[in-house]
Amino acid sequence: MFRLLLLLTVVTLAAGAKLQLRTLPRLDRRIVGGKPVKIEEYPYQVSLQSDGSHICGGSIIGPTKVLTAAHCTSGPYASSLSIRHSSTYRGVKGVVIMISNIVRNPDYGPITASHDVSVLTLSEPIKDSDIAKPIVLVETNATEGDREAVCTGLGARLSGGFTLHLQAVDVKEVDRKACNVSYNGRITDTMICFASPGKDSCQGDSGGPLVVGDKQVRIVSWGRGCARPDYPGVYAHVAPLRTFIDENL
After folding, report:
1. d(CA 36, CA 15)
2. Residues 6+ apart with CB under 8 A from 46
3. What is the set of active-site residues?
4. What is the pTM of this model?
5. pLDDT of residue 123
6. Is-contact 197 229, C-beta < 8 A?
7. Secondary structure (3-state) at 243
8. Cα separation, 170 vs 96, whole angstroms
9. Which three-class secondary structure state does DSSP give residue 92?
């Protein structure tokens, strides 16, 4: 899982040189202000793992397909990655399946976090059950504005050595223009923002799903800080990314 990165950029000016501190997207998103839930309530949720350790969230979108964030797959080779599904807990129970192929959006930008989506192919199909089902993706022409959503994730921290529990948090859509102002113009067409008081900037594990009704509309992507009311959580916008996703199903 990626951490908040700080980049010192040297900018040369006519009058001399000075240092500018540039904050890159926080690519380590965790549920804040949520509640524990069971996998039966959100059977599309999976844990993306590297060498058996949780690194990101993801969602089942087909028998052999999982959707996650591109930044979650920017380092590891497919041979080291697997998913754990059908489990309320991170790291135990459920079923582990290896990943055979990763297709990361070719337009993904690690600095801007634009087009932050990857489609994973599993080495064997997931058996459909009450605790493992694909989520339907939002339509390409879905209307933006004033939507309420639920975000799920397995990224809460260990406490006293106990196994982590699946979390869910309710958030509301933030006006695109207002969010763009908060982030100084960094919100692209493939991003959208959601937040709620005390929950508005760390809504879930990177790569995990944000769902409106019964359809996934976003992928947890990035943000600045944690639970800061002036910086909403930023999500990869599934609707304009559907062409890439559909081509790799």
Report:
1. 56
2. 57, 58, 59, 60, 66, 83, 84, 85
3. 71, 116, 206
4. 0.85
5. 97
6. yes
7. helix
8. 28
9. coil
